[in-house]
């Protein structure tokens, strides 16, 4: 029965994607489907709802991050921080290589910060805004950002994801990072080539259409406007926790909105909640957005997805998968089995963390080499949730940067990493068997 339920759930999402329907509808249908499974397993309705609520409570701290990202992206717009950086960058960035630059900048900042969410709310917002200003396709820029923010999330020494894998597999963090760096070289280089080629293929008119936007109609510029962005980088160097780091940047941007842009304090608070709206209509596509309200859609996605994880754990919906994975591993190898497990857990869980934990539980007994298993987890359960639209890992990055769902196919690094590992392990296994 469990396989039938999971199959129906997958079919619902497949139809949703094909028809372009709102993901929340599919998630809502999934919620009722899994509640029905709990009732079928003889649990009472109150028990099943308690399981769902427990799942939501397990990710409750993420809602603080939602609020901080919403406020940060709002006041950065109001203070002129984003517009100032765009103005500086537009004079130096060649549009034909901008998509590659967006990828590299987000790779660098995510490695420094160790967090995809913090990177997307800072460098992600900046690079998307610059891309909009110089006429880049939002989907391509969004894909480069999505791939870049998970470069460091996967292998930064200060990444909680890398630390989680290290703890679960009992492998030294720096040993794991060294192994990850080796496996990432080719996918990273190929991604750079693809992003460079995409930029070269864009028509010149599209690359320069919006380069002449006059932000001076809207803001009073001075170098101090870069302070909220500089503080993010500076405090991260001193390993200040990301939430505290973002709060400091919000406070600085709010202060600059008041002192430099003459924003009323109540209006600043309004912007933190509802987002910034440009009084100059021509500049609206480049500067409008942000605010806590902008994160409500992704919060609804997270609530529903998180409720699933509670029901899965309470009803044992995934218990039958382990035996099938063992059979699959004996036939095709450990890495393909780990990859399959990561795809399944990423599809049915709300978060990267849960996908990593579930994959570790399902596949931990398949591979006796702990270092190899740690690398396998990093190349599957860490990056795959980032291309699942209803996963926190993907939804927050897209929401923070105002990137469309069409960005996901352009996150090449996130596909090339597991694909290269699959090709490498498959050929290695075949050569050993000869």
From TrEMBL:
Chief subcellular location:
membrane
Q: Name one GO molecular function term.
A: antiporter activity
Which stretches make up the Na+/H+ antiporter NhaC-like C-terminal domain? 148-419
Q: Which domain of life is it from?
A: Bacteria
Cellular component terms (Gene Ontology): plasma membrane
Where is the protein situated, by its record's location annotation? Answer: Cell membrane
Q: Which residue spans traverse the membrane?
A: 12-40, 61-86, 92-113, 125-151, 181-198, 218-235, 296-318, 338-359, 380-400, 406-423
Alphabetized, the UniProt keywords read: Antiport, Cell membrane, Membrane, Transmembrane, Transmembrane helix, Transport
Membrane topology, as annotated, equals: Multi-pass membrane protein
Q: Which PANTHER family match?
A: MALATE-2H(+)/NA(+)-LACTATE ANTIPORTER, MALATE-2H(+)_NA(+)-LACTATE ANTIPORTER
Family, according to the entry, reads as follows: Belongs to the NhaC Na(+)/H(+) (TC 2.A.35) antiporter family.
The molecule here is called: Sodium:proton antiporter
Q: Which organism is it from?
A: Dialister hominis
Source species taxonomy? Bacteria, Bacillati, Bacillota, Negativicutes, Veillonellales
């Amino acid at each position: 029965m469990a396989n039938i339920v999971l199959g129906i759930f997958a079919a619902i999402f497949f139809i949703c994607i094909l028809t372009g329907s709102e993901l929340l509808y599919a998630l809502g249908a999934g919620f009722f489907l899994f509640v029905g499974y709990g009732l079928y397993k003889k649990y009472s309705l109150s028990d099943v709802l308690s399981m769902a609520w427990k799942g939501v409570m397990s990710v409750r701290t993420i809602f603080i991050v939602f609020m901080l990202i919403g406020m940060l992206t709002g006041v950065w717009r109001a203070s002129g921080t984003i517009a100032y950086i765009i103005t500086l960058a537009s004079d130096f960035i060649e549009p034909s290589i901008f998509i590659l630059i967006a990828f590299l900048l987000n790779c660098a900042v995510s490695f420094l910060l160790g967090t995809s969410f913090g990177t997307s709310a800072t460098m992600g917002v900046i690079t998307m805004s610059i891309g909009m200003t110089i006429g880049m396709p939002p989907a391509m820029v969004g894909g480069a950002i999505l791939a870049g923010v998970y470069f460091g999330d996967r292998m930064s020494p200060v990444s909680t994801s890398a630390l989680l894998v290290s703890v679960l597999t009992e492998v030294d963090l720096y040993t794991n990072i060294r192994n990850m760096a080796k496996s990432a070289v080719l996918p990273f280089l190929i991604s750079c080539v693809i992003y460079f080629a995409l930029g070269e293929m864009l028509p010149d008119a599209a690359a320069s259409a919006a380069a002449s936007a006059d932000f001076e109609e809207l803001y009073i510029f001075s170098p101090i406007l870069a302070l909220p962005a500089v503080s993010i980088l500076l405090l991260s160097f001193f390993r200040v926790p990301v939430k505290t780091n973002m709060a400091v940047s919000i406070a600085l941007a709010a202060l600059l909105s008041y002192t430099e842009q003459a924003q009323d304090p109540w209006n600043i608070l309004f912007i933190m909640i509802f987002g910034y709206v440009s009084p100059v209509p021509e500049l609206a596509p480049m500067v409008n957005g942000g605010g806590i309200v902008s994160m409500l859609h992704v919060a609804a996605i997270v609530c529903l997805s998180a409720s699933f994880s509670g029901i899965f754990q309470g009803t044992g919906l995934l218990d039958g998968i382990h035996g099938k994975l063992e059979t699959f591993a004996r036939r095709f190898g450990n890495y393909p089995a780990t990859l399959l497990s990561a795809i399944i857990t990423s599809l049915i869980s709300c978060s990267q963390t849960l996908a990593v934990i579930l994959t570790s539980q399902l596949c931990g007994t398949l591979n006796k080499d702990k270092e190899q298993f740690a690398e396998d987890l990093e190349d599957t359960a860490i990056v795959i949730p980032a291309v699942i639209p209803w996963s926190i890992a993907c939804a927050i990055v897209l929401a923070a940067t105002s990137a469309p769902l069409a960005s996901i196919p352009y996150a090449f690094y996130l596909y090339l990493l597991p694909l290269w590992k699959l090709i490498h392990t498959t050929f290695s296994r075949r050569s050993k068997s000869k």
